[in-house]
Amino acid sequence: MDRLNRMPIIAGNWKMNMKREQAAELAKALRELMGDTTACEVVACVPFTDLDCVAAEIKGSNIALGAQNCHWAESGAFTGEIAASMLAEIGVKYVIIGHSERRQYFGETDETVNARVKAALAAGLKVIICVGETLEEREEDLTYEVVGRQLAEALDQIEDDQMANIVIAYEPVWAIGTGKTATAEQAEDVCAFIRGVVAGLYYVELAAALRIQYGGSMNAKNAAELLSQPDIDGGLIGGASLKAPDFNEIVKAASAD
Ligand code: PEP
């Protein structure tokens, strides 16, 4: 299978932005600009409190609803947490797991990433698993070691047939929210490495079908070059997902391939 058989996927990560009124407006604008897009899968990963109002705005469009985290337990004494099945029951299709901000600020580990991935899949969600090295790790030549470890641990005990519901986002931590984008070559190198690791963990055809996103200051200007790389099948977009015209330009760039 080659690149042409992988449907590009552009996901917006709104992070902790957008109160309900703003969220509804942004979702409406996205729908008007790209609601019928079929050449690219589009996902809006919004704050928990915006899920219902965004769901109402994108209903019937080709934009899928996404969340930014979920807990690994089905229910119980986990104050402040949200179970994967709670997301599924209100129409969430995708969940981001292991974002570097969760690893950095909220104690997320490779082990908890794996537990959340399993819970999300069990609830019928599709998962965007984030991996990526810090600046120090890159400077110490540890990129492949770190990304390889994060990947192997996140996918521990995930069965072959579950992999169709997984997207991997390569997000170098030094490029997130900093305006510093990885060069297309740097991003492609690591995305190709990820595909190779997955081929080793599973098999070549499965890895060839896996969608891999790049994330880290992707915007309307640099998207086309990044998305033209053979192993980059989409983007996970933070800042630029908050402006409908910019996000639309990225979706157009992904759809053009
Ligand atoms: C992200 O949060 O996943 C991200 C890539 O952010 P930004 O596009 O703002 O760098």
Can you offer a commentary on this structure?
With 257 residues, the chain is α/β, with parallel strands linked by helices. It has one domain (3-255): Aldolase class I (TIM Barrel), CATH 3.20.20.70. 41% of the residues lie in helices and 15% in strands. The protein is built from eleven helices and eight strands. The protein has helices at 20-34, 51-58, 84-89, 100-105, 110-122, 135-139, 143-154, 184-201, 204-209, 223-227, 244-255; strands at 9-13, 41-45, 63-67, 94-97, 126-131, 166-170, 211-215, 234-237. Strands 1-2-3-4-5-6-7-8 form an eight-stranded parallel beta barrel, surrounded by six helices. Helix 1 runs parallel beside helix 11 (244-255). The longest helix is centred in the last third of the chain and has 18 residues, at 184-201. The protein is globular. The model has no long low-confidence stretch (mean pLDDT 96). The site of phosphoenolpyruvate has 13 residues, from strand 8.
